[in-house]
């Protein structure tokens, strides 16, 4: 970052430091397949918690079902933690063991 001295009339100098702001870390939120959670419930979670349109929610649900995991979105840490927590709360409340995790993007 640029550092420079600016001369003053009385002979003093001041150093000005320009800092670059760092982008916050990003986290991928994932849903994991299990043998108990219904496909309809997964679609409802994707639409309700992650605000996915029905067509995209269906595609993610199929990825979870066929590949064992599906990405729901990429968020800052705080937002990702809140979404993971909400998924677990809603799944537990509905009697499903749906697992949702987050992983840092490097």
From TrEMBL:
Domain Adaptor protein ClpS core positions: 22-101
InterPro entries: ClpS (IPR022935), ClpS_core (IPR003769), Ribosomal_bL12_C/ClpS-like (IPR014719)
GO biological process: protein catabolic process; proteolysis
Self-association and partners: Binds to the N-terminal domain of the chaperone ClpA.
Stated family: Belongs to the ClpS family.
UniProtKB keywords: Hydrolase, Protease
Keyword Transferase tagged: no
Ranges that cross the membrane: none
Alphabetical list of Pfam families matching this protein: ClpS (PF02617)
Gene Ontology MF term list: peptidase activity
Gene: clpS
Organism of derivation: Desulfovibrio fairfieldensis
Function: Involved in the modulation of the specificity of the ClpAP-mediated ATP-dependent protein degradation.
Protein name listed in UniProt: ATP-dependent Clp protease adapter protein ClpS
SUPFAM superfamilies: ClpS-like (SSF54736)
Record's keyword annotation contains Hydrolase: yes
PANTHER family assigned to the protein according to its UniProt record, in alphabetical order: ATP-DEPENDENT CLP PROTEASE ADAPTER PROTEIN CLPS (PTHR33473:SF19), ATP-DEPENDENT CLP PROTEASE ADAPTER PROTEIN CLPS1, CHLOROPLASTIC (PTHR33473)
Superkingdom field: Bacteria
